[in-house]
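Sanity check

After download, print the first record. It should look like this:
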Amino acid sequence: MENIQKYSRRVRRVLQGLFILAPLLTLYYWLTVNTGMDSLFRSGIIETDLDPMIFASEPLTMTTRFLAFLASMLPCGILMYALQQLIHLFRHYENQEIFTLATATHYQKLGYVFFYWAAGAFLYSGLISVILSFNNPPGERVLSLTFTGIDLLSILCGFVVLIISWVMKEAQKIADEHMHTV
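Expected structure tokens:
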């Protein structure tokens, strides 16, 4: 049990660091993209699927960068919510609360995150395409809504995690009934 506590503490700290880094990296990206200071993203260290759309256009204005940052906070916010649930989950593991109703509830919330991710990715693709092409001349503005195979996989994973949380809650109820049975 000590190893679970030790590794849970380490994982929780990494997740807390990622929780802080996610919005900062998003802000850094939109402040530096297309300025020559975006080497972190052009080098492939951090992947982005917006390169063709961004780098083929005129330099981005600060208004466009700000709106793109706001739009990017949609998937970033979903990621931060998932990280928050994982942080709570690993904190429970640190406190030796493995099979409890609280951990099952965090698994349930993580299951919903997969659905939020698929919906957020769909909305984000539309928002970012409009924002990045808004300054183009009429007829060259774009609204691109995408739903990919990874979004379908996210929904499938969401169902799997929700079923696991449901099983964990039922197991907790059965364990509670057995504890109170004489």
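If your output differs, re-run the checksum step. Summary of this record's structure: Residues 43-47 have pLDDT under 50 and may be disordered.
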